[in-house]
Amino acid sequence: MNHNVCHSLRENFVKQLVYLEENYASFVDSYFASDINEYTQFFNRYASSVQDLLGIFDQESDLPPSIPQVFIGSQVTLLYEEEQETEQFTICFPNQVNPDEGYISFLSPVGSQLLLRSLREKVVLLTPGGPTKVSIEEITFKND
């Protein structure tokens, strides 16, 4: 990756932090009204991880950091352990959701459970159909 791509990725992550801060009240009212502390912890954990990643960008100048965690904008390939089948999701903001194309909100039940997970991590997703064991097989960042 060249300097322009790194700069674009960095800019994307900065925009994420701004968007989350600007929409804090709306997200709390819509998704976390019963537990404001839950969203505050969720936001702080995500913001801290993004800031850590931005620090890596700053240190490595032209070299892209590997992005071994799921962030907003990540395309995640999951392996369903029982079926041995894969599926891809792109974690996005609520206004970008398109389930037919695999775009799921970071606030959705599955999206929120994948956020900040690591490559090769095994996760038990709690879904309406019951617990589902998956492994995170690939994480790529879609810099749309």
UniProtKB/TrEMBL annotation:
InterPro entries per the UniProt record, alphabetical: GreA/GreB_C_sf, Tscrpt_elong_fac_GreA/B_C, Tscrpt_elong_fac_GreA/B_fam
GO biological process: DNA-templated transcription elongation; regulation of DNA-templated transcription elongation
A GO molecular function held by the record: RNA polymerase binding
Annotated SUPFAM superfamilies: FKBP-like
UniProt keyword list: Plasmid
Domain of life according to the entry: Bacteria
UniProt keyword Acyltransferase present: no
PANTHER family in the cross-refs: TRANSCRIPTION ELONGATION FACTOR GREA
Protein name: Uncharacterized protein
Organism of origin: Priestia filamentosa
